Amino acid sequence: xxxxxxxxxxxxxxxxxxxxxxxxxxxxxxxxxxxxxxxxxxxxxxxxxxxxxxxxxxxxxxxxxxxxxxxxxxxxxxxxxxxxxxxxxxxxxxxxxxxxxxxxxxxxxxxxxxxxxxxxxxxxxxxxxxxxxxxxxxxxxxxxxxxxxxxxxxxxxxxxxxxxxxxxxxxxxxxxxxxxxxxxxxxxxxxxxxxxxxxxxxxxxxxxxxxxxxxxxxxxxxxxxxxxxxxxxxxxxxxxxxx
Length: 243
Known about the structure:
The chain has helices spanning 32-41, 67-70, 103-110, 131-138, 154-163, 179-184, 198-206, 219-227; strands at residues 4-8, 11-20, 45-52, 58-60, 116-121, 147-151, 168-172, 188-192, 210-214, 232-235. With 243 residues, the chain is α/β, with parallel strands linked by helices. The protein has one domain (4-241): Phosphatidylinositol (PI) phosphodiesterase (TIM Barrel), CATH 3.20.20.190. The radius of gyration is 17 Å and the shape is globular.
């Protein structure tokens, strides 16, 4: 498995670096353009957010509404795939229009050479009944070994585990309890880097759980986290970590 390395101040770090929502400091996050640029820059580890539209299509978008990204307070759950083209996203980078893409539009862009794709299921309080089934059905079976599913909603991951006993799971958490990822049969714990502690490192590694932290955009911070035992990061600046 390729390992991205960043060298600075005579130290060396080695960890997995996920392209967080694509190259989103240069293109609109979670768009076709952001993922295409990240792939062109050499990214082979990706993270994206999935939501379920009214017509059953799967959209790539972080927030539950388009208020911040398009300036319109419309909920994703009330839209169809055709509706997405009605709402151009704010684009401070180029003059080209950018839109919320579908999962089926993004997969062909990032799968060549893919090492691992972290699919975050946006399903707090089961706002999207059936999201887990829809995502599993949409992903090619041969791709599943390279998919790491995550969610802040614990029940969502429980449902996914029941539907797909062999699925790779990572628990997104704000309140770490090592018994939760162990009960899920998860392989990793994902948390904000400011919440990472030596106690979490010991608890995870004692049980062979990987630790992935978000969102890390400088090599100096990445090196500190690597030295403390973090196994990987999510970054908006993937090109900086591909040297």
